[in-house]
Amino acid sequence: MIPSGSELAIVLLFSLIGGLVALRFRQPVVIGLLIAGALIGPNAFGLVSQSELINTFAELGAIFLLFSIGVHFSVSKLLRIGVRAIVVAALKLAFVFIITYEAALLLGMDLFSAFVLGAILSVTSTALVAKMIKDMHVTRKIEANIMIATLIIEDVYAVFLLTLFSSMKVPGETLQYQELLIPLISALVILTIAYIVIGRILKSLLKWVLKHRNEEALVLVALVLAVGFSYAASALGLEPAIGAFIGGSMAAALPGGRVIEQSILPFTAAFSSIFFLSMGMLVDPASFLALLPLIIVFSALNIVAKFFGMGISMYLTGMTGRQAVFAGVGMISVGEFSLLLARDAAPLVAFDLIGFTSAIVVITAISYSLIAGREEGVYQFVVRNLPYNVRMSLAYFSHYFRSVIRSFEPGGKSFRTFIREGGDVLLNASAVIAIVGAVILLIPYAERATALPAGYLLLGAALLISMKPIMGALESLKEILDDFSDAFMHMGKRKSQVKLNERLMKDAVLFMFFFLLSMNFPLILTLLRLQSLWPLSYIALAFSMLVLWDMSRVLRVLFVGTDVKFE
Fold first, then answer.
1. Could you tell me which CATH number the domain at 52-385 has?
2. Closest C-alpha among 12, 562, 77, 482 to residue 276
3. At residue 470, what are phi and psi to the nearest 5 degrees?
4. What percentage of the chain reaches a pLDDT higher than 90?
5. Among candidate residues 380, 322, 316, the one with its CA nearest the CA of residue 548
6. Is 236 exposed, middle or buried (0-12, 13-18, 19+ CB in 10 A)?
7. For residue 367, with 0-12 CB atoms within 10 Å meaning exposed, 13-18 middle and 19 or more buried, which class applies?
8. What is the CA angle 127-131-134, rounded to 5?
9. Predicted TM-score (pTM) of this structure
């Protein structure tokens, strides 16, 4: 048996070799690391095993990887990105998830395996997209900014999945809602404490560190945030990597957040390399060969679903065809977060999920490297093969939703109304909560002091006092809803056009309802283990498509004779 120290030396050596070989062939480093890990692992040449030392370093790699991802996320940044990126991220994730989930069920997988595959493969590689945008010098272009914002939202979605999978301890178990809510609430508590208490303490400390240019202290601050939050998350029953993400998001909100990211970069590079190599070591060549047909099917399906999911979402929210194709090509790869999710979900499924996911990561990354730089050719191919009616329907939808979304973005009419009236709703709701809370605290003392039914009297008084803030909140909500409906009804003022606008708004609401229903069916059926009812998700999806078809007919009537065109 090789000593642990010697195994670590072999791991570091092959990490270097795998990374250099990948760079030589202009491929992402993660591909070289996964392949190198598969070769030296216990299932191939057996040079190293998954020893305790290797597992510890791999866990540190996951922590630093999530910390570096968290540094790119902050609440303030998320609020600034606007509705457009949220819509793009939601549509893209939903599109890829539904296609993958339904395909897995049609190929004979059980509900939970299909759900896990759909969730894992819907996430795009953050590192690969960020590097692509940087290398192509397009950081200032709007499509690049929306892509980065979409990845931020995907990271939040992936953290939710990480919490969900780590909450399931037994394969095939029915998860109780308390088991899901408690970890999520715990994560929110950590995040709240971090922003309110630790953030204020660290702001003063970081100002002093940055002033004196003390690099050692800066590294220690980053390490304390990464490891400290990981330990806190672990103590609360969460995955340590989730705590690291929260610590990274805490760093993003601090002065000099980018400097912190740079200071911890060597640790992230070293330890995350061991993490990816350790993921490759778990790959079993025998199971890989057995799963090869499924790997090829899901790789191709994932590339096509991500390209069209991202491209159509971008086009519908106001981007040009070329911008949409650029984003679609850029988002086809499966990445590092998918491997983290596969690691946690692997004990819950009946096949080699880590090997399966690793293979798809390699195939999609290589596919991206072959397509990158050929976006114009892809655009021309899509335009040539899309029927004219489909192109014009997409153009009508794009023109319509562009105006709608503009109203909800910062500076738009609906956005200003929401900020103004939303503050009033929050203030009035807080007043009602304070009044009712005070009365509930007073009831025990009042009941001891008098023989009268003090509880009912005090609650009645609280209700009367609360009527004014309740009415104020309802009026503000009415203003918000009225403004929201106006955003959907802006296509002409003639009587016939007003009726078509009303139909459009109803269709939009119905589409969102049925689409969200079709998205939630998989989670509900999976958690309740209702395998026989999975075709129900098709019904909701069919209704959403039917409503979408009706919207296209209405838009065609509204835009007839206009200069709207596909571009």
1. 1.20.1530.20
2. 12
3. -65, -45
4. 6
5. 316
6. middle
7. middle
8. 145
9. 0.77
